[in-house]
Description:
Strand order of the largest sheet: 1-2
Number of strands: 2
Number of helices: 12
CATH architecture of the largest domain: Up-down Bundle
Number of domains: 3
Shape: globular
Amino acid sequence: GSSVRKExxxxxxxxxxxxxxxxxxxxxxxFIIIDGAEHMSEEAANSLLKxxxxxxxxTTFTLLAVDExxxxxxxxxxxxxxxxxxxxxxxxxxxxxxxxxxxxxxxDLLARICHGCIGWAIxxxxxxxxxxxxxxxxxxxxxxxxxxxxxxxxxxxxxxxQFGKDRASVGKRLELWLTWWRDLLLMKNGCVEFIxxxxxxxxxxxxxxxxxxxxIGGMLKSIRETIQQLEQNANxxxxxxxxxxxxxxxxxxxxx
Length: 256
């Protein structure tokens, strides 16, 4: 999925270059991982290119990127491609149950919300805070659906402030919102077996009855547009306020 990432600038790449010029404290090899390499500025990418052309013998660079097309072709040409695909849900669930002893119901939920990233699911087994934050974020989304405009704008202001400090956390929250509204769409179409947030099945059933399909589809589109705008450095508070306006209000009348 999409995520809001901060640009990797020239200063960060220069720091990496300085570090690799030094002899490792321990061991003979050094491994450098650049996560979100497609978010390097053009200046940073060109600077890294010089290092990749003549890399230190003791250093291995690993560039992680969701979109290879966003990288400089000259950088791609100097790298060995390794495609990492998400693991199927049944395989993740089976591994969690058999290798890590996770109860079946919990394993099913973790397998769904990790989106094929089994490493995240394994870390979440012992990270109660991550799952608690997810639950709190879903609660706040449900509350916003019932809140008035002033409550929504106040929330947008808080989220914009958070975005200024930690872009990634806001991106993850919006991605979580996407799973919720996608689940509502699946519920509305009778595809319950494909929902992500299985621990919120009853709440999803209640919420799905409150909205027409057009409202659910419109909200999914609005969230995706907001993520894209934030990635393109739009004014965060303005973008989030527009998103708040687009959250459909729950209706007293249920829709078929």
